[in-house]
Every structure is written in structure tokens, then in C-alpha cells.
Specification:
It contains 16 helices and no strands. It is mainly α. It has a single domain, classed as MFS general substrate transporter like domains (Growth Hormone, Chain: A, Up-down Bundle), CATH 1.20.1250. The longest helix has 49 residues. It is globular, with a radius of gyration of 20 Å.
Length: 400
């Protein structure tokens, strides 16, 4: 049991490193291949993000259903192979069109997190699922901290060097899985692949047949929308509220990421053991709400860092929700559930940046009725309140 958990942990670390490692050089590469200025590069970067997120939304349930039908191992290995080739394609991209093709393919094959989650559900007892989902969250945090740091160092060798490194990490991930990762889903627990369930709409329809799961999925979506306020406006908020430069923005994100790693990798286990999944989820949502309501009253940089040891406890909410939902579905639908959650996460990455940046722009322009850079966080607080309401409708039911 311990070896598969370790391998899946490393798989998510390497995968998130591959994502984070290319972030520091994306503006330079877009300017290089598109022959555009920084302002235009930002617009193209946003379009590339949307293409990736839309395909992740559309195809995550397909890959999750494939893993329910044919096993986690082949889906994971094929996705990693294509991911490796996709990073290589982007490293060699001569035009913006090829970059878009790379992001298009990458969104389709972004199955590693959903499949890793399904694998973890397969090998975990009901009482350990939320703890192990927290471990996956910690793995993503570790990779997301290390990735941008490594990407910044590799940028010294050119804007394409991090893409070659990301391709190498994905291929190393593939070799790791090929040689040491056993299949977690036995043939007796698999189900026949059905196209009508292998898309986000079919998957959501199927999830609705399971008692009590719909409000949980909607609460998960609302929490995801609230959380993505950070990558959407944090850099702009820091500049407007505290006059931060890029270095301080990066330092604050790294500190928060480190705190999330500690919460999801270390503290979540004793907390879940002591209080259970439902109370842990409620506590995590409460910390989300408190954090978003406090931001408008912060006026100094030290306020952010002083409050961070409290705000990082919000990272408890999602793993606890994942554990509750995973225990509510049968074993042959774990991949479908993880695919549905990946689609909801992708949907949040589309909705949140569009809404939060518009709200920030409205409340910081010269004609705003009130200057309020923290307005997106207040909107996120409302999203968390709605998640609270939906979660309160949940009643534990055993799956068939």
C-alpha cells in the first residue's frame, strides 16, 4: 500500500512541476513566436489558458470513464506519454498556431490528476480517503512551488528550456509509473465504457442519480470559483493594496503554497481523525470565508503574512469534500467522479478569471463608486456562503 501511495504522490509532484515550470517564460515565448508586445502577449496567454481549460472541462470525464472501464494504469501512462510529447511540441513551436495546438492537446490529456485521484480512491479505505486526497493536494503544492523556481532558473538558457525540462519530467513520470505502479482497479470492479456518460454533461447527469451528490458537487464548484480568485487577481491586488512588486507577489504565493503543503500533507490526518470529514470540511470553508472577509481591512504587507497561518487552514475543505463524495459513489464510478470534479475545476478556471478580473477592474478604475481592490475577495466570500448552504443539504448515504 505504501509504495503505490508514494508513486502517486511523486506523479502529482512531477506533473504539477511540469505545469509550473513553464509559467515564468510563457510571456517571453508568446512574444517571440507571435512577434507581439507584452500587452498583446497577455491577451494571447489568456486565450491559451481558456483553450486548455475548456478541453479539460470537456474531456476529463471521458478519460475518467476510460479508467473505470480499462483501468487506471493504461490511462495514466498514455496521458503522460502524450503530455511529454506535447511539451516537446511547444518547445519547438515556431508560431502561435502551434502553441495553441499544444495547449489544445494538453487540455484533452490532462488526466493525471483525475486518474491519480481515482487510483488513490481505489487503494484507500473509506476512513482514509480524505487524508490521502489531502496528500495529493500537498503533492500538487510541492510541485507548484518547485516548478516556477526551476523554471525561473532555466530561463537563463532561453525561453524554450523550461519546456524541454517539462517534457523530461513528464517522461520520467511515465517511466516511474511503468516500472513500479501496479493496476489498482481489478477487472471485477470495472464497468463497460459508455459514451453517454463519458462527457461532462452525461457524467453530471449520472452523478445526479446518486443521493445527495449534486449539492456536494455544486459546493465543490463554488469553492473552486472562490479559490481561483488567487491566480486571477492576487498579483493585481498586491500591487493596488500594498504596492508589491513581482518579487513580493511570488514570495507571498510561495509562502501560502508552503502552508498548504503543511496543512494537506501533515496536519490533515490528525484533524480528520479527531473531527471527521464533515466538521473538517465546515471548518475549512469557515477559514475561507474569514480570510476573504479580512482582506479589505489589510493595509500593510505584514498583515498578509501574519494572517497566513490562519488562512491556510482553508485548504482542509476540498480534501474533506472529496473524501465524502468518494465514499458516496460505487467503486466502478470513482474515475467518473474524479473526471466530473476535474471538469468542475476546469469550469471554475474559466469562470473565476473572467468574473474576478472584471470586478477588480470596475472597483479600481477612476470612475468607480468606491475604490476597493479587495472586491473580488468579497465576491468569493459570497461564493463560499452559497457553498455552505448547499453543503448543509447533504445527508450521508451509503452507495449501492
Amino acid at each position: 500500500m505504501r509504495l503505490p501511495v508514494t508513486v502517486i504522490f511523486l506523479t502529482v509532484v512531477l506533473d504539477s512541476m511540469g505545469i509550473g515550470i513553464i509559467m515564468p517564460v510563457m510571456p517571453d515565448l508568446i512574444q517571440e513566436v507571435g512577434n507581439v508586445d507584452l500587452s498583446q502577449a497577455a491577451l494571447w496567454g489568456g486565450a491559451l489558458t481558456v483553450v486548455y481549460a475548456v478541453n479539460q472541462f470537456l474531456f476529463s470525464p471521458t478519460l475518467g470513464s476510460l479508467s473505470d472501464a480499462y483501468g487506471r494504469r493504461p490511462v495514466l501512462l498514455i496521458a503522460l506519454l502524450v503530455m511529454s510529447l506535447d511539451y516537446l511540441l511547444m518547445a519547438l513551436a515556431p508560431t502561435l498556431l502551434v502553441l495553441f495546438l499544444g495547449r489544445f492537446i494538453g487540455g484533452i490529456t490532462a488526466a493525471t490528476h483525475a486518474t491519480a485521484g481515482a487510483y488513490m480512491a481505489d487503494i484507500s479505505s473509506p476512513e482514509d480517503k480524505a487524508k490521502n486526497f489531502g496528500l495529493l493536494g500537498a503533492a500538487f503544492g510541492v510541485g507548484f512551488i518547485l516548478g516556477p523556481m526551476l523554471g525561473g532558473l532555466l530561463a537563463e538558457f532561453g525561453s524554450r528550456a523550461p519546456f524541454y525540462a517539462a517534457a523530461g519530467l513528464a517522461f520520467a513520470n511515465l517511466l516511474l509509473g511503468y516500472f513500479v505502479l501496479p493496476e489498482s482497479l481489478t477487472k471485477e470492479k470495472r464497468r463497460v465504457f459508455q459514451w453517454r456518460r463519458a462527457n461532462p454533461f452525461g457524467a453530471f447527469k449520472q452523478m445526479r442519480t446518486l443521493p445527495g451528490l449534486t449539492p456536494m458537487l455544486m459546493a465543490f464548484l463554488l469553492l473552486s470559483i472562490a479559490f481561483f480568485v488567487y491566480p486571477s487577481v492576487w498579483a493585481f491586488f498586491g500591487r493596488a493594496q500594498f504596492d508589491w512588486d513581482a518579487r513580493m507577489t511570488g514570495l507571498s504565493l510561495a509562502a501560502y503554497g508552503l502552508g498548504v503543503v503543511v496543512i494537506q500533507g501533515v496536519l490533515i490526518r490528525p484533524i480528520l481523525t479527531r473531527f471527521g470529514e464533515k466538521i473538517t470540511a465546515l471548518f475549512g470553508m469557515s477559514m475561507h470565508l474569514l480570510t476573504f472577509l479580512v482582506y479589505p481591512f489589510m493595509s500593510e504587507t505584514w498583515h498578509v503574512f501574519a494572517f497566513m497561518p490562519i488562512s491556510v487552514f482553508s485548504a482542509l475543505a476540498v480534501p474533506a469534500l472529496q473524501g465524502l463524495m468518494s465514499n458516496a459513489v460505487p467503486e466502478d464510478a470513482q474515475g467518473e467522479l474524479q473526471g466530473a470534479m476535474s471538469s468542475l475545476t476546469a469550469l471554475a478556471t474559466i469562470i473565476s478569471p473572467l468574473v474576478m478580473t472584471q470586478v477588480f477592474s470596475y472597483f479600481t478604475n477612476s470612475e468607480a463608486p468606491i475604490y476597493l481592490p479587495s472586491a473580488p475577495f468579497l465576491l468569493s466570500a459570497l461564493s463560499v456562503v452559497l457553498a455552505f448552504v448547499l453543503f448543509s443539504r447533504w445527508k450521508p448515504t451509503a452507495h449501492p
